[in-house]
Write a structure and sequence with these properties.
20% helix; alpha+beta; extended; 2 helices; 88 residues
């Protein structure tokens, strides 16, 4: 039995998505980015002005063209199965 997608960590979720050919091409196949682009996971943001203590989930880079770099952040959305709650 597989673990629930809501129970796995964000880094593991990104790793699993990039390992699946369909999701990998969906995430990395951004219009205008050449096929030779490389991707890096969990890139620390240490040294960035403002003292941010975080990372970039996926950094997509085109060799020799740093102006085309794209940072991708993965966020999970939890969905409950059941009636919608009424708000006043």
């Amino acid at each position: 039995m597989h673990p629930s997608i809501s129970d796995i960590s964000e880094p593991l979720l990104v790793q699993q998505l990039l390992a699946a050919p369909h999701w990998r091409s969906t995430l990395l196949g951004i219009e205008g980015i050449p096929e030779g682009a490389r991707h890096f996971q969990a890139v620390p943001m240490a040294g960035i002005p403002g003292g941010v203590k975080s990372d970039v989930d996926i950094l997509l880079c085109v060799p020799g063209q740093p102006d085309l770099a794209i940072a991708i952040e993965a966020k999970r959305v939890k969905i409950r199965n059941g009636p919608a709650e009424q708000t006043p």
